[in-house]
User: Fold this.
Amino acid sequence: MDNQQKEFLSMINKHSMNVGRRETCEGFIAYALSVLNPACSLKTDKERAKQIDMKIKNSRINNDELKHMLNLMIESLELNRNQDFLAEIYADLGIFDKNFGQFMTPYHVSHMMAEINLSDLSLDRKMENNPISICDPCCGTGGMMIAAGNVIKDKNLNMKDFIFYAQDIDWMMAMSAYVQMSLHGQVGQVIIGNSLDLDSHPREFLDAGNSWITSPAYIYYPELLERLYIRTQMKKKGKVHEEREF
Assistant:
């Protein structure tokens, strides 16, 4: 554990004296979402913004400290991208619920699995208009996604040629994956829901309801932000009736 992780962990433990450790971590994740997700910045989804604000408030951590914690995480990733930062923090805090089937997959194991699954990729492979999908239906903090992305970078392949899909039934785990995938520059979609329930999957690649588009996607595909804005305007005018639609 590097110095940034140690300081981050110390701050979590300090604030956990007032509220639970999970609530403290959820507050940090909510703050990171508000910084990284364009939809949160637009403040067009009142329910989502309300949920984010409530989790930050419940953590009782002020914005300056939350900003510092996010900077610590970024600094740690800049020093070593081959890590599952949040999984190590959660494991140390004892947040993973074993009765719920949650456990930390060691990063080196995730990296080995990624190397095996992506071993047939080459620099000569033509992606054309069909990017390769990398999926994890029970993503936890996104360790498998992070490892896959790092293997792709090690092969000097273009990250734009890959789309990452992650899903988890636990809000904090799914959103932790979202934060880490965004910081690693991965274009993708994170869904909060049961992977065995097909109704939890959105019909299109849009930031809607329990579906979150990673921030790099808006950089590589700016039309998504325009579509998000149009969908928001349609909802305001009552033209979008589906509950999960934006």
Observations:
- The chain has eleven helices and four strands.
- The radius of gyration is 18 Å.
- The first strand starts at residue 132 and ends at 136.
